[in-house]
């Protein structure tokens, strides 16, 4: 009888050990999932912010290019109810010819750059430079 009693006790001990190991594996898996979900939420937030700024830039570029008269210079435009400020740079294009070789008049290069605060730092969209390896938001249009 004593032999059977000790075998039962050993089996109960193994059952407890199995439950503890299963809980440990479950906790590690949950931690990994939590980290993954946190990173996904950060990426989604960044994508939403970039999409919002892209829409603002597109709207500002459409507005500037539809003006009847453009003047050379740089203008700063604050966006209402946000921490975004736009720099609108209008430069005349000189020596631009059409297919027939005729000089085109009143042609401008419009560049709009957005400045905003992200994590207490100023973030800025800028046109890509030659040799740049990182993509950036750029909105330019010729008129």
Account of the 3D structure:
With 143 residues, the protein is an alpha+beta fold. It has one domain (2-142). 45% of the residues lie in helices and 23% in strands. Strands 1, 2, 3, 4 and 5 form a five-stranded antiparallel β-sheet that branches. The model is unreliable at 128-143 (pLDDT under 50).
Structure summarized in a few sentences:
This protein has one helix spanning 2-65, and strands at residues 73-78, 85-92, 108-118, 121-124, 139-142. It has 143 residues and is α+β, with helices and mostly antiparallel strands.
Main features:
143 residues; alpha+beta; five-stranded antiparallel beta sheet; 1 helix; rod-shaped
Describe the SSE topology:
Blueprint: H1 2-65, E1 73-78, E2 85-92, E3 108-118, E4 121-124, E5 139-142
Antiparallel strand pairs: 1-2, 2-3, 3-4, 3-5
Distance from first to last alpha carbon: 99 Å
Radius of gyration: 31 Å
Helices and strands, in order, run as HEEEEE
| Total separate domains | 1
Low-confidence stretches: 128-143
Mean pLDDT equals 78
What percent of the residues sit in helical stretches (DSSP H or I)?
Answer: 40-55%
Q: Characterize the largest beta sheet: strand count, sense, and whether it forms a barrel.
A: 5 strands, antiparallel
Provide the structure class: alpha+beta
Strand content: 15-25%
Tell me the overall shape: rod-shaped
Number of helices: 1
The total of beta strands comes to 5
């Amino acid at each position: 009888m004593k032999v059977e009693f000790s075998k039962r006790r050993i089996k109960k001990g193994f059952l407890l050990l199995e439950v503890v190991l299963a809980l440990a594996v479950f906790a590690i898996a949950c931690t990994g999932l939590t980290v993954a979900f946190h990173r996904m939420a950060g990426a989604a937030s960044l994508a939403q912010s970039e999409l919002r700024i892209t829409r603002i830039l597109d709207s500002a570029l459409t507005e500037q290019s539809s003006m009847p008269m453009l003047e050379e210079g740089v203008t700063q435009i604050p966006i209402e109810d946000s921490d975004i400020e736009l720099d609108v740079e209008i430069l005349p294009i000189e020596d631009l010819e059409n297919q027939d070789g005729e000089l085109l008049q009143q042609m401008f290069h419009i560049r709009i750059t957005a400045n905003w605060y992200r994590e207490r730092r100023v973030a800025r969209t800028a046109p890509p430079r030659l040799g740049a390896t990182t993509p950036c938001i750029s909105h330019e249009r010729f008129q």
